[in-house]
Design brief:
single chain; about 180 residues; mainly alpha; Growth Hormone, Chain: A; about 85% helix; globular
Amino acid sequence: MEHLAVILFLAFGLAMDAFAVAVAQGAAGHSSARNAFRTGAAFGAAQGIMPFFGWVLGSTFVTQIAVIDHWIALVLLSGLGLKMLWEARAGDEDEPAPNLSGWALATAAVATSIDALAAGITFPTLDLPVLWTCVVIGLVTGILSVVGVFIGGIASSRIGKFAEVMGGLILIALGIKIFIEHQF
């Protein structure tokens, strides 16, 4: 049960970048069902695949990093969280988001999932079931991205900033939790 909570916190934290982009898509007038599901599928697939690649890297070097794994988790997850907070603060709210499709959508999906790659590196230190974790991350991101496009169409781009801030705070909290558990 503890693994499920960690997986869900990780999934929601990692999904917030994609959710913020999806909300911006909807807020910019790109809120059709077709666009919402295309956005959700692209972001969900990228977020589900990238942590697997990170896990492969982390597993390859697990014996070398076992002594400092909690520090790695703290630095990577907190760093990602701080990056999200910085980007939420520095973004331009007045500039409408372009409609993402084709290569632009694929690029945005990969760009928003780089943090998932870094988070995957921490999987060996968290003792998480890799495939299950990747599937949950992908599904949560896909669903939140679809919902985000529709929310953006109804509301405004300000929700995207809030989502990015919350995602950043969740990742920082998860990094601190891992560090404290391994320290004590």
